[in-house]
């Protein structure tokens, strides 16, 4: 007997047939003797319609009223799924954020979960009832409905799993697990049986958008074992767990890529102490997220400073840099959106030297020029020309022995 | 300065343009210096869709989950209207039933309002903020969402008006007031400036479906002054108030009709004490609502017993009567759905004799046979053949001097 939280996203509850299908899956777990709670998203398309209405009335709508409107999407699903479960003989009841309660801060539209009262849910579950909980929403200060931001239902599921001390949090989605890389680029990509939290965080941050980053962070912090699996097929998915649980650790777990960043270069910046602060301070103040940074010292006492920002943030970055032009003293700003960030991720990199060297050698052999390099404890990322994306990913996937047997 | 509750039904908030229109109307009252609270229904069509989903999943769905699902319709409207109001500079916030709270009993799907906390609403209103309250819903025992049944938003509005001690409750709808009779039958029907609560109750019960009956009962009990007016046109509507407020009281205020009833006759019932109880006891037990009753004594010690029930209830009535056939001892049951109940209503009838006589004389002159008569203190109803409906209504409207000047 285990205690399981099952989470179903918008496409899994898109219509009544799919809701019935979800009910059948839940029933199977209940009949296997497990204690089950379910977290659901809005039926797909519903949230978009609600957001559209708010935006049409006012682009600058009150975030509190926006939350009141969009939270109804999940509320509808909870009631319908509870009915579908009861219809096939499973005791169930719906729970909204304010009923649990799922307490959040007051940051409407992107609230943080502060506390979930698990006692009543546990009591119901041990009595054989399935709580069907609205994802994506909570209750903030002054009894206002809050929402957790896009993808927030994953976060709700992990938070509920922590609150009821679940053995596992199963995230049902439209992919069937986490792969060594994007199977659309590498047909021989393998589904991973298990990924460490830290690896998942790095993979998520570089574009493997299976799980919302905040939900992985929370799972790691609260030691919630997460499984990603398909709601349409009937096979095991991928576990996201503590690294201690992963018996065989490859050097590199996956190859990820992101086309979301652009490269910005400041030419001929005077090389003097404090110059980095002069460049990046104003960008941070303007909420421009800077990722990779590299600085090349020239022979004439000036340096070219290169960094990456989100493609959508290039105009804002230019504006900020223009304002501090006098202070920084650069000659020109060059932005290049035609770049891709390629990363190798693996907790094995912590204890093994030379992992990154294989990356550089592999890319060199394919004639791919590396524009920027950045590293973390379990990740090495390089920026390359966008046209090399597929070539680089495939070569690295093979080089690190990740290809499935032919 | 007055304190006003404004209620807008589904057609008045059917889309964003109409919601903006409602916001403009609310703003006008606020700018006139009034304290305003608003009660809204779901956007028209939304509730039907939600009900359909519940019913498709299970015809015998859990009423608690049904309430959770359908209450979202009003929630969406509250948020959108709050945004629309803020956009034109009116301070506003949405309130769901559980936030106010509007406490009800646990009769899900048709709950009764037990108590509304008015203090916080009054505080907001006197601070210049407009509470936008979800109609049709409340919170029952164990923190479950309840709904008040179809048309329940009228009830919500009157209950809120009582709770905040409003000077008036304005019900905006798709008709512009209460008429002396149905203008589709009598083009010269007149809009009434004021109607007494008791009259409105009798008019509602015989088919003038402008206001939900329970909301009129509550208004009468709590002395809430109600105004019915159009949300599409800009002119005063009809007041529903205490009879003391109505200065000039005509003998007859209106002529109403109902095609919802059928006539049932039990032939040759033995005329003995207790026979009425034998007939109507089992019908009441089976929840069959009996309205008009008449009994004609024959010369042979038997009697024909005639009464009316809702047309939809005829099969159930037949079934009940069949079961008690031996006990009652009638010869046959005859049901006739081709009847209409015509009523004249007016508090003036209390103090004036001969009002009903004019009705009988008028119908006789037109050659209309009266099948059953029933009377109350302020109403006289007759059952006539359905084909005489328009003729009877027109003749009575003229006879009681209700026609507008030509």
Summarize the structure.
Chain A has 406 residues and is of the alpha/beta class. Chain A contains 13 helices and 20 strands.
Written description of the protein model:
2 copies of one chain form a homodimer. Chain A is α/β, with parallel strands linked by helices and 406 residues long. The first copy, chain A, has a domain at 3-174: 3-Layer(aba) Sandwich (Carbamate kinase), CATH 3.40.1160.10. Chain A is built from 13 helices and 20 strands. In chain A, strands 3-6-2-1-9-11-12-10 form an 8-stranded mixed beta sheet, sandwiched between helices. The first copy, chain A, has a 4-stranded antiparallel beta sheet with strand order 13-18-20-19, with helices on both faces. A 4-stranded antiparallel beta sheet of chain A has the order 15-16-14-17, covered by helices on one side. In chain A, helix 6 (152-163) runs parallel beside helix 8. The longest helix of chain A is centred in the N-terminal third of the chain and has 16 residues, at 16-31. Chain A is globular. The model of chain A has no long low-confidence stretch (mean pLDDT 92). The A-B interface holds A 16, 19-20, 50, 53-54, 56-58, 61-62, 64-69, 71-72, 75-76, 78-80, 82-84, 86-87, 93-94, 96, 98-99, 143, 145 and B 16, 19-20, 50, 53-54, 56-58, 61-62, 64-69, 71-72, 75-76, 78-80, 82-84, 86-87, 93-94, 96, 98-99, 143, 145.
């Amino acid at each position: 007997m285990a205690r399981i939280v099952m989470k179903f996203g918008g496409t899994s509850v898109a219509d009544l047939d799919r809701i019935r299908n979800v009910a059948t899956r839940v029933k199977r777990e209940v009949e296997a003797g497990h204690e089950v709670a379910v977290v659901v998203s809005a039926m797909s398309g519903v949230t978009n319609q609600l957001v559209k209405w708010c935006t049409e009335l006012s682009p600058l709508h009150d975030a509190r009223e926006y939350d009141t409107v969009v939270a109804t999407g999940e509320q509808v699903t909870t009631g319908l799924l509870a009915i579908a479960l009861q219809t096939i003989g499973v005791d169930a009841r719906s729970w909204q954020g304010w009923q649990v309660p799922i307490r959040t801060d007051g940051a409407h539209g992107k609230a943080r979960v502060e506390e979930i009262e698990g006692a009543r849910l546990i009591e119901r579950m041990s009595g054989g009832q399935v709580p069907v909980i609205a994802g994506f929403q909570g209750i903030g200060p002054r009894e206002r409905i809050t929402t957790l931001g896009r993808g927030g239902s994953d976060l709700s599921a992990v938070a509920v799993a922590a609150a009821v001390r679940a053995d596992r949090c199963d995230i049902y989605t439209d992919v069937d697990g986490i792969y060594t890389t994007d199977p659309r680029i590498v047909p021989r990509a393998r589904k991973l049986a298990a990924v460490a939290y830290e690896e998942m965080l790095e993979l998520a941050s570089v574009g493997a958008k299976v799980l919302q980053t905040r939900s992985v962070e929370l799972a790691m912090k609260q030691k919630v074992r997460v499984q990603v699996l398909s709601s349409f097929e009937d096979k095991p998915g991928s576990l996201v767990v503590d690294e201690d649980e992963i018996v065989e650790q490859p050097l590199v777990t996956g190859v990820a890529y992101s086309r979301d960043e652009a490269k910005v270069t400041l030419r001929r910046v005077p090389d003097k102490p404090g110059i980095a602060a002069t460049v990046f301070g104003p960008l941070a103040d303007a909420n421009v997220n800077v990722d990779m940074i590299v600085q090349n010292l020239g022979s004439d006492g000036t340096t070219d400073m290169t960094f990456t920002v989100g493609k959508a943030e290039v105009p804002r970055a230019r504006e900020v840099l223009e304002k501090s032009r006098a202070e920084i003293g650069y000659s020109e700003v060059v932005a290049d959106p035609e770049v891709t960030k390629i990363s190798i991720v693996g907790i094995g990199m912590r204890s093994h030297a030379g992992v990154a060297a294989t990356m550089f050698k592999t890319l060199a052999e394919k004639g791919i020029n590396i524009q920027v390099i950045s590293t973390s404890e379990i990740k090495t990322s390089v920026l390359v020309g966008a046209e090399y994306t597929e070539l680089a990913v495939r070569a690295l996937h093979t080089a690190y022995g990740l290809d499935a047997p032919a």
